[in-house]
Amino acid sequence: MIFIHSASSPGLSNNVSTSSKTQNLLCGLQAVGDEGQQLQAASEMCQLLVMGNEDTLAGFPIKPTVTALVNLLKMEHNFHLMNHACRALTYMMEALPRSTSLVAEAIPVFLSKVQVIECMDVAEQSLIALEMLSRRHSKTILQANGVESCLMYLDFFSINAQRAALSITANCCSSVVTDSDFHLVEGSLPILTAKITQQDRRSVESVCQAFSRLVDNFMSNPPRLEQIATIPFLKNIQQLLTVSPPIVSSSVFVAIIRVLSVLSAGSPTIALTLLTQNIGETLCYLLLGSAAPFDASAAAQLELVSRNPQELYEIVSLVGELMPALPNRGVFSIDSCLSKSGPPSVVTWEWRDDRGEWHPYSPADCKIIEVGIGEDHR
């Protein structure tokens, strides 16, 4: 006779134990009228989520737990409950990324917390949650007037909370594509302009990303560009470029120079303002390390500051945008003489934004699209 010994898998046993504990904690969160039990359950839920992941929390009841935690987050009279509920929702998004779409429904609740700083811990924890949500749900935050809400008490927050608020703003600016969207951030531009000169690198880079995205989205709208690029903005940007040692990374430096190029190309008024603000001296400093005038006879001895090719390209492009346009007659009409009369041999792919305007893809992206189409037809 053969005896078969059956033993449960340790992993399965752990999952059953976790599932049972989760259900007990969920019941505790839903214990309306017993705030002591709710607080204990919220605290233990935080511990469970901060140590968990997709594997250890398989079968986790996301929807009812989110609903219960959001209800606790609305309990204005109990700061401890609100703080633990907010932390639990944040930990849930980290451990279970698929929960983010459900937690996003609480965006208005999170925003209401950052507008009231009676309990700073709740406000700052809400900013952390909103920063995570803004990576995928920036449009929802923007349309809920989230930029203004996050920047309302910016100077009262800790440096980490300020970084979160400015990161949220930068993410939201990528969704600002129409005039109605622009009005949702217009009032916050002076605050962002002032933050360009602060010393915290991550904060400054988020501000630069915000302006870069706005300028890219409105590059064909001169009135909007002029609202973005105020005189204080241009002065602060020039000051940022000449800080030594540099505050921002090379990639952000390139983005800043490109912003100035786009602004100069899109608005002659902005280009003239830059010239009157001695942008030439700034460019001289960026290329030679000194803004002081030099004798023409010494030009042969000048040495360029060591910069990577992308930085040099953007600086020279900005110089080109600031120079007067060449005439298109006489010897300068050579381009039209050399242009092909027939259709172009290379297909250019374009994409349409929310305003109905078409924009060309880069040559590299066009090649990728062509390759993808070729594979689909195999």
Automatic annotation (TrEMBL):
Enzyme class, UniProt record, top EC level: transferase
One GO cellular component term: nuclear speck
GO molecular function: ubiquitin protein ligase activity
Keywords, comma-separated and alphabetical: Transferase, Ubl conjugation pathway
Domain of life of the native organism: Eukaryota
Catalysed reaction, written as an equation: S-ubiquitinyl-[E2 ubiquitin-conjugating enzyme]-L-cysteine + [acceptor protein]-L-lysine = [E2 ubiquitin-conjugating enzyme]-L-cysteine + N(6)-ubiquitinyl-[acceptor protein]-L-lysine
One Pfam family from the record: WWE
SUPFAM superfamilies from the UniProt entry: ARM repeat, WWE domain
EC numbers: 2.3.2.26
Pathway(s) per entry: Protein modification; protein ubiquitination
Biological process terms in GO annotation: DNA damage response; proteasome-mediated ubiquitin-dependent protein catabolic process; protein polyubiquitination
Family, as annotated: Belongs to the UPL family. K-HECT subfamily.
Protein name: E3 ubiquitin-protein ligase
